[in-house]
Design goal:
By secondary structure, the chain is mainly alpha-helical. The protein is built from 17 helices and 11 strands. The strands form 4 sheets. A 3-stranded antiparallel beta sheet has the order 3-4-7, with helices on one face. A 3-stranded antiparallel beta sheet has the order 6-5-8.
């Protein structure tokens, strides 16, 4: 499908000012002031955590504790104020910044002959254990590696200093050093745990502030999880080794003190953490996703018994990030209790299900969003992410998603729809009104900024069901062009690769002509489709290319033979 114009249709200088809104100087100054204050607090918080293993950071924390320990909360309150309060303050500032920012402004991105460079998007590592890593992500990885090396070095110096300060029998020095090293690994794990829950909060205001979608930030949680569990495992191994040498292993493991460190609580917490860690490894998560999903719910056991293990004194260090995550989890739980109506369902021949779901008018999403869907008839615990395939301009009270039937859950969904439908799947007709599917929606999530509206030229490359978000983008662009709303794209190229031709009906889910009549006069839309695993069938009575080539060669040989005979005569 292709629509070309005689000349590129770009925005004229007269049309652009309507799309670029210049905020007032006061509003702009307030936004920049909040951003600067937020980043200063964040950098100071990260710097304090990184310096804490050394003498300078430790002395700074001690000064803060002395200045604030007179409060009713005591030393735990001082530690909370030092390590957890900054991240909560940043969250409140993020709320204020998002409120005053208002709606997105679609500014035309400046183009340059030279390729641009952005830390968050420029790939530095492509093939490696971390996958595709941008420049900013590589900087973060290097900083954490440097932090671990620095903390290990600083804590080792402090351990050796303590060994010389106290009169410890030579026979016990090795055991004491093992216990002190285990203690330091546990402290390093706690400092990493302060970051662990920040990327996994789906509706995190911190992620929205820096415009990193949850689905992109989850990889940071994975990396931090591996690092944190490695440190906690070393923490446990060093203590177990020391207790084994002392001959008090079982006694120490089962000990639960009313004050101080409760060892048994630490054993339970570490056991839950190890179970989550092992089942989250890529081979296990890929082949046994449900096992990974259900065991990951042990994070409640991990956090609760961690708090009982270290006490309120040290748990105050990580309470800020955990509080933000738990608040996000509570709000998601409240949203997930509401059910939505399935207005329509279609089973396409290619094994794809299209669902049209009702939504409240105040639920806002954009063409780059995705949602989590639960069908209670299939599972009460499983939530699956799907990109929206509709534009918010398609209707105020519904949204659409496309579900490729691949696994057990999606197969059961298709069977459930077909069992309640009186039509054949090939017809693609909506379900009868008597059909009832109890569905719940969580979200939407995704990019806050609508990047697809900020460029005049778009190239969209997709494979198979990956066309879903691009259908939403195309619908959104056509609606905006038709309604005269802010929209910069005027030339769109879609490159779509599918395995078989039966996937082509996915394009029928968007009716271009009804959305934007005479769209070819306004938008240069070109769609190139490549079918990769299907060859064109041979027509009956038509000679195949290989046979025709063979006959042609025979005719040439016969002609040469006749010419040679005539020449001999």
């Amino acid at each position: 499908m292709a629509n070309s114009l005689n000349k590129p249709l770009l925005l004229s200088d007269e049309a652009e000012p309507g799309f670029v809104k210049n905020p007032s100087f006061l509003l702009s100054s307030l936004k920049w002031s909040l951003k600067i204050v937020t980043w200063v607090i964040f950098i100071a918080w990260v710097g304090l955590i990184f310096l804490f293993p050394g003498e300078i950071g430790n002395q700074l924390v001690e000064k803060i504790i002395k200045a604030t320990k007179g409060s009713v909360f005591g030393i735990p309150g001082s530690l909370f104020l030092t390590f957890s309060a900054p991240i909560l303050l940043i969250a409140f500032l993020a709320v204020a910044l998002l409120v005053i920012s208002g709606e997105d402004v679609f500014e035309k991105r400046k183009t340059s002959k030279n390729p641009g460079f952005r830390l968050w998007t420029f790939p530095v590592l492509v093939d490696g254990p971390f996958g595709v890593v941008s420049a900013a992500e590589l900087i973060g990885i290097i900083l954490f590696v440097v932090f671990i090396i620095w903390a290990l070095y600083a804590y080792t110096l402090r351990n050796l200093s303590h060994m010389t300060q106290f009169d410890i029998p030579s026979t016990e020095k090795g055991i004491v050093l093992l216990e002190m090293t285990g203690l330091r690994f546990g402290m390093m794990g706690l400092l990493c745990l302060a970051f662990l829950f920040l990327p996994v909060a789906r509706g995190s205001l911190l992620l929205r502030l820096i415009d990193i979608p949850f689905d992109h930030a989850i990889r940071y949680h994975v990396w931090l999880g591996h690092l944190t569990m490695m440190l906690f495992t070393l923490h446990g191994l060093f203590y177990v080794t020391a207790w084994k040498i002392k001959g008090t292993l079982m006694k120490e493991l089962l000990e639960w003190k009313n004050t101080g460190v409760a060892n048994l609580a630490g054993v339970i917490s570490l056991s839950a953490g190890l179970l989550m860690w092992v089942t989250s490894l890529h081979p296990v998560r890929k082949d046994y996703f449900e096992l990974f999903f259900y065991t990951h719910q042990l994070y409640v056991v991990f956090v609760v018994f961690l708090a009982l293990h270290v006490g309120e004194f040290l748990f105050s260090i990580v309470a800020g990030g955990i509080f933000i995550f738990m608040l996000d989890r509570f709000l998601r739980f409240c949203q997930s209790q509401r059910t939505v109506d399935v207005l329509s369902a279609k089973c396409l021949p290619c094994g794809t299900v299209e669902l049209v779901l009702s939504k409240p008018q105040n639920l806002q999403y954009n063409a780059l969003s995705f949602i989590f869907l639960q069908v209670r008839e299939l599972s009460l615990l499983q939530w699956h992410p799907f990109s929206v395939s509709s534009s918010p301009l398609d209707g105020k009270y519904h949204l659409s998603i496309l579900i490729k039937v691949l696994g057990e859950w999606s197969s059961r969904l298709r069977e459930s729809i077909l069992s309640m439908s009186e039509t054949e799947p090939e017809t693609g007709l909506p379900l009868p009104t008597k059909t009832m599917i109890t569905a719940s929606v969580e979200g939407p999530y995704g990019h806050e900024s609508q990047y697809h509206l900020m460029y005049e030229n778009l190239i969209l490359v997709a494979g198979g069901i990956g066309i879903s978000p691009f259908l939403a983008i195309l619908s959104d662009i056509l609606h905006r062009v038709s309604d005269g709303k802010p929209c910069l794209p005027r030339r769109v190229l879609v490159v779509w690769a599918v395995k078989k031709s039966d996937e082509l009906p996915l394009l029928s889910t968007i009716d271009v002509e009804s959305i934007c009549p005479f769209f070819s006069d306004k938008v240069n839309l070109e769609i190139n489709i490549y079918v990769t695993r299907e060859s064109a069938p041979l027509l009956v009575g038509v000679i195949s290319p290989s046979t025709s080539t063979l006959l042609l060669l025979l005719l040439l040989l016969l002609l040469l033979l006749l010419l040679s005979i005539s020449a001999g005569i």
